[in-house]
Every structure is written in C-alpha cells, then in structure tokens.
Design goal:
It is built from 20 helices and 23 strands. The protein is α/β, with parallel strands linked by helices. The protein is globular, with a radius of gyration of 25 Å.
Length: 617
C-alpha cells in the first residue's frame, strides 16, 4: 500500500531559520547551551523531516528559552528495553512528542519487517487514560500501517495486560502500549512488545533500539483511511470478552461474602478488575468515587502520583473502607498492571488497617497458588515459580517446603519473568512475582496483571473470612512457619548534567571497595552479577553463575540479611534494596518482630546513605 509522509509545512521563513541558527551558535559561545544540545537543535532546524517542529522551535529560540532548550535537547530520550518514557513536550529529542513517538513506532516496524519473514505482519495497539495517549496510539497505528502492518486497535483505554493478552489472542507479531504507568501526569511513553506478548528481551531489545536510533523519515498513513480500508480494526469488544474469560480460568469456587473497595487511581482498571471480579461472583464491589473518573491529571490522588506502592494513596481509601465496613481495599496503577492492597488486622471492624507490601503480597499469592495446585492433585515437582533477584526470599522458602522449583535470580523487570515462562514452557508455571507490586498468575499474558492478582487475592480473602481470619493474619501465620522476613527499597537521585557520570563512579567504587558493615552486621560476601564474580570481602574472586545485570549484593554474616544496589539504565538514579530476616523462633509477637526488623533495616539504610555521601562528595 502507499505510504504518506505527513510532514506539516512550517510557516517559518528561510530567513528566520538562518537567524535562529546564528542565535543557537551564539548561545553556545556564551555558555547558555551545551554543544550536544546545539547539535540536536541545529539538526532539527536544518533537516526537512523536522519541519513540523520549526514553528515551535524558532519561537523558543526567539524567546531565548535557553535553559528549557538545553533540557529538551541535551540528549536523546533513550529507547530502553521496555520502550520510551519521559515528559511530554511538543519539541525536543529528550521529550515525548510526535517525533519521538513516531521514531519509536517506525523503528519497531523496520526491525520486525527485517527479522520476521511473513507476507502480512500485524500489530496490536492500546492506550491508557493519560493526556495525548489516544493521539499517540493513532500515530503509532498510522506508522505501522504505512509500513505494511495490519493493526488490531483497542478503541478505548485498556490495561497493559490486556494488550499483552491481545497480542497472543490475535496472533500479532508485535504490540505497542501507550502508557507511562505510575509516572507524573506530565509524562507519557510507549511500551513495546514482541509476538509472545512480553516486553523485548535480547536480541530484539537492542535490535529495536538500534532501529529506532537509525530512523530518519517517519511514514504515516491517515488513521481514518486505514480504518475505512480495514488496515486498522477495532477489536476491543472481542479482546475484552476473551481477556475476562482467560483471567477467569484462575478462579476457584468458594465463599463470595466480601466487601471490596477498589480504586483505579483515575486509570484504566475499571475496564479490567471490575469485570473480572463481577464475573467471578463478587457483587459487593465499591468503586471509590473520587478516583473513578479516567483522568490523566490524577486529580484526587496525593501529589497526583497514582502509584499503589505509596502509603499516602491509601489514606482516603481506608477511611472510606472503614465507613463502609469493607474487608479489603485494592488499588491499581493507571495501566492496571500493578496492585496495592490494604486489609484489617482482624475481623473486628475496629481493628487497625494494614498496608501490604509487594513482597508480602507475593508471599501470600505464592502460598495460595501452590496450595491450589496441591489440592487439585498436581505433581508439585513439575511446577515452578519465577521472581526477580530483589524480590523476597520468603517466596523461595515457601516453594521449597512444597517441593516447587523457584527461578529466583532474574534481573529486575517483568520481561525477564515472561522470557522465563517462554523458555521453560507454560505448562508448569504457577506465579511470576516482583517486589514492585507486579504479579502474573496463569499464562494468558506475558506481563504482570493486576486483574488476575485482584481475583486471587479476593478469593483468598473471602475464604479466610469464612474461616474467621484476615489476609494479615494469614501472613503472620506464614511468618511463624517460615521465618520473619522484612524488606525495604530506596531510590537516590544524582541530579544534574554530571549525574550519570557520578552514578558510574559510585558503582565502580562499590565494586572496588565494598562496604564492610551494614548497620551492626558485618559484610562477608559480595556478589557482582555485572562482572559475573563473587568473593569474600578481602578475599579472592571466583565465578558467579547468574544473569549479567549491573547489580551488586552485599551479604552479611547473618543469613538472609543483605543489601543490593543497582543503577537505573536511563536516569541518574540508584536503587538500594535491604533485606532483614530472623528465624521463626526468634519472635512470638508479630509487632515485636516487625519493630526489630524495621529498626535493623533503618540501620542498613543509614549505613548505605553515609557510604553514598562519602563516595560522591
């Protein structure tokens, strides 16, 4: 089919372009613009494929908005392993706009055409409730159609896991999800998926990244014409029905006496979680009114950050649930792939509410899913669970007690869990879990899915309620059996133009000179997955089997008490993970255990913060 280059003609004259070029060079000479930013700006001013941006760009230069232009052009927004994410702005190489979104879709199309030998290629596309998400989704469709793809388009905001499911359901060669997940309202992004429904892994991640970097011209075919000619097909009704049916395969019979408060945090969750719970027989569902409206500004969420990991997100939700006499509170992030949960400590309506961490939710789900398989007569030795290396080891303890295999050394990112399912085969898969509140049960998708996690959590909570217990009491029972585990994660930003260089220096410092203590505990062993080496502190190195990810672990002289550090691949930010543990007999009172382990984690954190300060100043 014919391609159409939809480059908007600029109203800027050649004289204005010339003047703008001179002003940019003068700004560099005065130190108001970096050389790198100026090179990107000059490329946008002089190459015809950027003509649609000339009006905005020339205006910014005329108004001498040098600091803003520096921020927008000092680098190119990285197309990472999952896609491209950042602040939206009409112009700039370091922003989400028509150009950077178009490059992402074009690069994906070019790569898929190069590596997949098929006469007709297909792509599934979905989008969330953020500003411009629908617009960017249509743009991606136009690019894919212009490259000869038929597009299966979910017309109406839908969840990321439904997009992953749709790729598999319709047999697509790739997929695009327009979402920035739990980022601030000013951000947007594209997540890119392969034919298995999972985000990209080697070699496709680097292949698509390189293809995106090589894009010069972005071809587009008008969306309305593509729809009329059948190149774009609306599939949301079929996808919705099939997705709910697939999730319901994880449903089990049992009590349904459960009062549920649910918040989609102004995102897409009401299109996934609510239909699934209703179809499973839960009727006492209360959608939290202030968060029910799909709204990319996330107006009623504290600080407008719709992240179910944040305790403040649940403050109003718990107050509402207490007034209703609810049993459980659920909240999902804007694209409904991650879930947060709060429950009462006991069935007493006056009891305290508890927020459960991602690690605690993973622990509860692991125990429940294994017990289900056992009750159904499955050979547990043929089953496996998958988790990332920074997710609680309590999951491994539980699985080991049942004889279930655990793949527990995967890098951070659910794409690796999805890849492991593909590698090992879906037949024995039970659960994928990561500490950042992402879970997959079943094989209908290859990404984390808050809808199926909600279903299993509600069924478990309803059964426990019928037995006179709560989800929190079940967690305490697991602690008393397997040991008292507690975890904490912190992120430290290294801002400024030198942030990434400082980050590299910090990681090198930790490798060359590991900390000797974590709080009062002595660091005895270092595992360096980036170099594939491990060694006792001060001792000789030996090979380390595991993924080649830039992550360091510092193990102490007490089992399961450790810290890990890994850098962000795209931002000047470093993440630290702290793990504390005591055996079951160490405590009888869960509050005492929690206080002791939290105090230990605080000493771990204080140690690391001081190490970072010393190594970066």
């Amino acid at each position: 089919m014919a391609n159409e280059d939809r480059c908007t003609t600029s109203t800027v004259s050649s004289e204005e372009i010339h003047v703008s070029i001179e002003k940019v060079r003068e700004a560099v000479a005065r130190g108001q613009l970096s050389v790198q930013a100026s090179q990107n700006i000059l490329r946008w001013l002089t190459e015809p494929e950027y003509q649609s941006a000339w009006d905005d760009l020339v205006r910014h230069i005329r108004e001498q908005q040098w600091q803003l232009l520096e921020d927008l052009f000092f680098t190119t927004l990285a197309f990472g392993t999952g896609g491209r994410r950042g602040r939206m702005y009409p112009i700039g190489t370091n922003a989400i706009n028509e150009r950077t979104i178009g490059e992402s879709a074009q690069g994906l199309a070019d790569y898929v055409r190069r590596v997949i030998s098929k006469t007709e290629l297909t792509c599934a596309i979905a989008y969330d409730t953020r500003h411009r998400s629908r617009e960017f989704a249509e743009l991606c469709a136009e690019v894919m159609v212009a490259s000869g793809f038929r597009v299966f388009f979910l017309d109406g905001h839908r969840s990321t896991p439904e997009l992953s499911f749709a790729i598999r359901h319709f047999g697509c060669d790739c997929g695009i999800m327009v979402t920035a997940s739990h980022n601030p309202p000013a951000d947007n992004a594209v997540k890119v998926y392969w034919s298995d429904g999972g985000q990209l892994v080697p070699p496709h991640d680097t292949g698509v990244q390189q293809a995106v970097e090589q894009v010069q011209k972005i071809n587009r075919f008008p969306f309305a014409e593509a729809l009329a000619q059948g190149w774009v097909r609306y599939v949301q009704q079929e996808a919705d029905s099939a997705f709910v049916e697939a999730v319901l395969r994880q449903s089990r019979g049992g009590p349904r006496d459960l009062r549920i408060v649910y918040s989609p945090l102004h995102g897409v969750g009401a299109t996934a979680v609510v239909p699934v719970l209703q179809a499973a027989g839960f009727s006492d569902i209360h959608l939290f009114p202030p968060h029910a409206e799909p709204n990319g500004d996330f107006p009623n969420v504290p600080n407008h950050i719709a992240n179910p990991e944040l305790p403040e997100v649940f403050t109003d939700l718990i107050r509402y649930a207490r007034g209703l006499g609810a049993d459980i509170v659920l909240a999902t992030d804007p694209d409904c792939d991650r879930i947060g949960c709060a429950v009462r400590e006991s069935l007493d309506q006056k009891s305290q509410w508890r927020l459960l961490t991602g690690n605690q939710l993973g622990t509860l789900l692991a125990d429940e899913i294994i017990r289900r398989a056992q009750a159904e007569g499955s050979d547990l030795g043929e089953h496996y669970l998958v988790k990332t290396m920074v997710t609680t080891e309590m999951i491994s303890e539980i699985a080991g007690a049942f004889g279930v295999r655990v793949v527990g050394d995967l890098p951070v990112g659910f794409r690796w869990i999805a890849h492991e399912i593909e590698r090992r085969g879906p037949a024995g898969f039970l659960l994928g879990a990561e500490e950042s509140y992402g879970f997959l049960i079943g094989t209908h998708a290859r990404d984390k899915d808050a809808a199926v996690a909600s279903l299993v959590l509600c069924e478990l909570t309803a059964r426990l309620k019928a037995e006179g217990k709560t989800l929190y009491e079940q967690l305490v029972a697991l602690y008393r059996r397997y040991g008292w585990f507690r975890e904490r994660t912190i992120s430290l930003g290294l801002p400024g133009a030198k942030g990434m260089a400082l980050l590299e220096r910090l990681m090198a410092s930790f490798r060359q000179d590991p900390p000797r203590k974590l709080g009062e505990l002595r660091v005895t062993w270092v595992r360096d997955y980036g170099r594939g080496m491990q060694f006792p502190v001060g001792g000789p190195q030996e090979p380390l089997v595991g993924p080649g990810t830039n992550t360091l672990f510092f193990d102490t002289d007490r089992p399961n008490n450790r810290a890990a550090v890994r850098p962000s691949g795209t931002e000047p930010k470093v993440k630290f993970y702290f793990f504390a543990f005591e055996p079951p007999q160490a405590f009888s009172d869960p509050r005492e255990a929690e206080a002791a382990l939290e105090a230990r984690l605080t000493t771990f954190e204080a140690t690391i913060r001081e190490e970072v300060r010393r190594r970066t100043t």
